[in-house]
Amino acid sequence: MTAYILRRLLLMLPTLLGITLVVFILIQFVPGGPVEEILSKVRGLDGPGGAKVKTISAAEIENIKAYFGFDKPAYVRYFSWLGNVLRGDFGNSYVYQKPVLEVIAGKFPISLFFGLVSFILAYAVSIPLGVRKAVSHGSWADGLSSALVFAGYVIPGYALGILLIIFFAGGSYFDWFPMGGIVSDNFESLSPAGKALDFLHHMTLPLVCWMIGEFAVLTLLMKNSMLDELNKDYVRTALAKGMSFRRAVWHQVFRNALIPIATGIGSIFALMFTSSLLIERVFDIDGMGLLFYNSIVGRDYNVVLGIIVISSFFVMLGRLFSDIIYVAIDPRIRFD
User: Fold this and answer.
1) Which domain holds residue 115?
2) C-alpha distances out from residue 73 to 30, 76, 77, 81, 105, Å
3) Which of 87, 211, 230, 297 could form a disulfide with 118 if both were Cys (CB 3.0 to 4.6 A apart)?
């Protein structure tokens, strides 16, 4: 297993290199960019006598290109950028005028909170619920919970967010939760306990929207996996030898049923750097999803590349983690 992990870690390097190369090439074909943004702003300025600036000299355009490094060929810019990345420098944001890592770090905590908490809650609820649905398959409780799970599966998170605001955030019915934002206006004047409660109060509805889709998928996957295992011969053999149904479920079936669930466990790493743009817009949350969208629209290429590189690394790390979990659940699995 150790050799397999080392091989996977080594394979991440050329994979990341290929991802950065493809994205960098695609960016070259995207119209617009920081140079065009500056030129459009300069042309909108008032010149002598209040007249708008209509023309910019070729020398001035070259100076602007040189400032952003666009006076060099694309391959030179790529290798220069790659060399800086290997030293931990992702460049500066054209929009925020800050280092890319500093810009990402400013949005990272909120996305980290949503990713980790929604992941933990989804698994903590869906796994026991899936087991319960499997052992009581066909009962009224299974039918009722299935209806709720399917409703959570088909409704998009942002649409659920709108409904929650209408019903529970002062939209038309109850005013139990804030309509948006992360904290209240008087957050700084609150006690430490008050700050924690205020933050959780604002995060409740967005958390529900974040985890609802994953919760539904995991619950159904866990139930179906349990049903498949319960119908296998080794379960019937264990029951015929006198083992209780409860013991068979938790000591034999449960562990085997967890193997398909382990596929999604590695997503915890990707969730740290991903977010939902639409949910963030609904609840007015400034997270990674909104940053990535604004960076694409604003042609902030360094930020786009930085987010893609870091998130891609965490996705690959998550898949490796899933493989390790596979082996922990079922030692018979070998990747060597």
Assistant:
1) 100-156+213-329
2) 16, 5, 6, 12, 30
3) 211
Counting other chains too, the contacts that 98-106 makes at CB distance below 8 Å and 24 or more residues apart are 100/302, 100/303, 100/306, 101/306, 103/291, 103/303, 104/288, 104/291, 104/303, 104/306, 104/307, 104/310
What is the Cα–Cα distance from 78 to 81, expressed in whole angstroms?
Answer: 5
* Domain end position, chosen among 93, 109, 138: 93
| Unique residue bearing structure tokens 């300025």 | 45
Q: Has residue 27 been placed in a domain?
A: no
> What is the dihedral angle through the alpha carbons of 134, 139, 141, 143, rounded to the nearest 10 degrees?
90
pLDDT tens for residues 189-229? 888 888 888 888 888 888 888 888 778 888 888 888 888 88
For 41-45, 50-54, 313-317, which range has the lowest pLDDT when averaged over its residues? 50-54
CB neighbourhood size of 244 (10 A)? 11
CATH number of 241's domain = 1.10.3720
How many helices, marked H, and strands, marked E, lie in the chain? 15, 0
What does the pLDDT look like over 284-294, one tens digit per residue? 888 888 888 88
- Which pair of tokens denotes residue 69? 């490094």
Q: At 64, which amino acid appears?
A: I
Percentage of the chain modeled with pLDDT above 90: 0
Residue predicted with more confidence, 2 or 25:
25
Residue where the block lists tokens 């943004």: 37
Q: Does residue 175 lie in a domain region?
A: no
Domain count across the chain: 2
Residue type, 336: D
Measure the CA–CA gap between 315 and 272, rounded to whole angstroms.
10
What whole-number distance in Å separates Cα of residue 31 and Cα of residue 63? 20
Query: In terms of pTM, does the model score above 0.90?
Result: no
